[in-house]
Amino acid sequence: MRLFPLLMLVAAPVFGVAATPEFKGSIERLDPALDQLIAPEAKIEVLASGFTWSEGPVWHEGGIVFSDVPKNIAYQWKEGDTAASTFLNPSGATKVLTDQGSNGLVLDKKGQMILCQGGDRCVARLEKDGKFTHLAEEYKGRHFNSPNDVIVHSNGTLVFTDPPYGVPKGGRQELDFHGVFAVTASGKVLPLIKDVRFPNGLAFSPDEKTLYIAVSDPEKPRIIAYDFNENAKTENGEAIPAVSGERLFYDAKPLVGPTRKGLPDGMKVDTNGNVWSTGPGGVLVFTKEGKLLGSILTGQPTGNCAFGGDGSDIYITANMFLLRVKTKAKGMGF
């Protein structure tokens, strides 16, 4: 194992937030194969800081857009910026269900932003006029718990997770399960998985035949995988997806400890099928077979990550920080 310590001073706190702690991070190399994905001289850059809980980054219009969930604001950072600027306010709570803002963000095939809106308990699309179109608001007449992360299949189907994290303390959880749902191109909402507690981040393999789910269950933190069939059956001429063959991709329980904060959360896949998943310690980098090659250690509970720029920069939302590491990989969609 090789450990490269990095110590960087953070940028000035944004938007009048109290002073942010000094950032300390490192790149942990467990296998020489990591050198093919992250160069030995690579550094962790601090791009912005002072957030309450940064989440859900996506590359959009020449910059990285990300959520600050408790603030109900989405920010954007572009190259050359000394701080992040407000992109959406409010981002996820426009009604009075809860005060949680947006969480996971993704672009659909037309380049429009899809948001998991914890406050409104829905999945929405941001229109060109700045208004939201709610794509999925309820299942069988009951509000979702708090949509957390969302991905888009090439056929237009959305898949999102619905753990209970956004349900306010003392509030009512209307669904009696933590679901993984699909929204078809026609708007049909259907559950794919109902028996996994605390499903969180999502990703497809490059061929879209495998669905990865990060499970942030404190008792069983792990990454699981399913076979994804976008044409499992047909209803009224529309293909209905389904999953099968649940299997363990990685058991994160042994990593959890006081020096490695966090649980499996957001994830992305590169063009060679390697999985980049936030988890205990920071961002864990796996081969497509589930071998852990190393980690980008942030020293923070780390919510999510996304490729951006030319597709080789990985942006990381880690607690109060927005970070970046230049890699040798290429993210899907670039």
Please describe the topology of this protein.
Layout: E1 2-8, E2 23-29, E3 45-49, E4 54-60, E5 63-68, E6 73-77, E7 85-88, E8 102-107, E9 113-117, E10 122-126, E11 132-136, E12 138-139, E13 142-143, E14 150-152, E15 158-162, E16 179-183, E17 189-193, E18 199-204, E19 210-215, E20 222-235, E21 238-251, E22 267-269, E23 275-279, E24 282-286, E25 292-297, E26 304-308, E27 313-318, E28 321-326
Antiparallel strand pairs: 1-2, 2-25, 3-28, 4-5, 5-6, 6-7, 8-9, 9-10, 10-11, 12-13, 14-15, 15-16, 16-17, 18-19, 19-20, 20-21, 22-23, 23-24, 24-25, 26-27, 27-28
Which properties best describe this structure?
four-stranded antiparallel beta sheet; disordered N terminus; 334 residues; mainly beta; 48% strand; Neuraminidase; globular
Description:
There is one protein chain. This protein is mainly β and 334 residues long. It has a domain at 91-259: 6 Propeller (Neuraminidase). The chain contains no helices and 28 strands. The protein has strands spanning 2-8, 23-29, 45-49, 54-60, 63-68, 73-77, 85-88, 102-107, 113-117, 122-126, 132-136, 138-139, 142-143, 150-152, 158-162, 179-183, 189-193, 199-204, 210-215, 222-235, 238-251, 267-269, 275-279, 282-286, 292-297, 304-308, 313-318, 321-326. A six-stranded antiparallel sheet has the order 1-2-25-24-23-22, with no helix packed on it. Strands 3-28-27-26 form a four-stranded antiparallel sheet, with no helix packed on it. A hairpin with a 7-residue loop joins strand 6 (73-77) and strand 7 (85-88). Residues 1-19 have low confidence and may be disordered.
